Amino acid sequence: MKPNDMFLRLPKTFWAGVRLISQEVGYTDKITRQIKIPSVDQINIKMQECGIDFHKWRNRRSGSNRFGILLDEYFRYRAEVLYTFVEPRLMDSIRAKQTFETLHKKLKPSRQVPMNKQSGEKKSPAYLTGLVNMIVEAYSQGLPCDYDPQQLTLITRDGLPVRTLARRVDGAFPSSTNPVAVWEIKEYYYTTTFGSRVADGIYESLLDGLELEELRENENIDVKHCLMIDAHDTWWTLGKSYLCRVIDMLHMGYLDEVLFGYEVVERLPSLVSEWVQIAKGK
After folding, report:
1. Burial of residue 53, with CB atoms counted within 10 A of its CB: 0-12 exposed, 13-18 middle, 19 or more buried
2. Rounded average pLDDT per 10-residue block, the chain, 282 residues
3. Assessment of whether the complete model's pTM goes beyond 0.90
4. Can you give the residue ranges of every domain in the chain?
5. Which residues make Cβ contacts (< 8 Å) with residue 277, sequence separation at least 6?
């Protein structure tokens, strides 16, 4: 999923509002668990409690639109895209296994598929990671890929280090040194609660995005940044508020794309082909 151009390149003050309103009004209804589209009255009441003049704030302009109009349109868009695009693509363990086995039979990857970190009956291939790895291998046109970087992402210029990122990512193409693209994979098929480990995955991607934004703005070096997530029960049943945060990060420019569940099969082949063309053009 790419960001909607309508909500790209908005000032950080806009996103300050999105986050604050989402926190104060709530991402979802506690009873129905439906994603909230906050009304003007709801927002106004909550902002008054925070000591903010919402009438003054919502009438500020961003381009040709007022903040108030953009906020309403964004909250509606966020809810709609989660219901109509994201939720149908999130897979449970059964669907993920079937998808993995079908593609494994078709692509016949040469690499061994990593296992998940579960034990006993839940021990199985890491389905989403396996899907990502074999699709990258199949569409990378023979170029290398670091499928499991055991080192920090390094950016160099003229043989000298420019940036060393803070975290190890889950994948880098074609290498973790001067990559064209890096990605994180968050699959939680057997998680029964939305715990700190799952939430931390979101903030890790945010940190990567902030560092890559700084690299792009100050060094004019663009590294594509993707997040790939799956597990219907974890993300949809338990973690809708975090899905909202993912959509926010995407439109804030901290992620170039997010692939939700089965979207890895739908989108990643063409995405890898784009990375190949960038790599060959360097």
Report:
1. exposed
2. 94 92 94 92 91 82 73 96 98 97 96 83 89 98 96 97 96 98 95 81 93 98 98 94 96 98 98 97 80
3. yes
4. 5-89, 93-281
5. none
